[in-house]
Write a structure and sequence with these properties.
- It is built from 4 helices and no strands.
- By secondary structure, the chain is mainly alpha-helical.
Length: about 100
Amino acid sequence: MSQNDIDPVVLRRSMRCALDLVAAHRIAKGLTLDLERMTAIREALEDRLTLAFAEVNLDSTSSSWSLEKAAETLSVEIALQIIHERQDEPRDPAYGAGA
């Protein structure tokens, strides 16, 4: 599947749950949610999802296959990878030492 086959609006809409998952994890762990950090995470998620879809052969998918459903499922898996990769990130000092 080429990048032209993927509607960026559908892709971003499908990533919402995955981004919420990353944000919830970051809040629970006392990590920063600044705009720069979350933008970088969203871009990493979008890039990895686009790369995953580059491997999809549309001719071999069933008629019931849905790009949006596949994007939702894959984006959650990618979000879990991102969480795991950043597990050693230091806490945000704004959360305080006693938290």
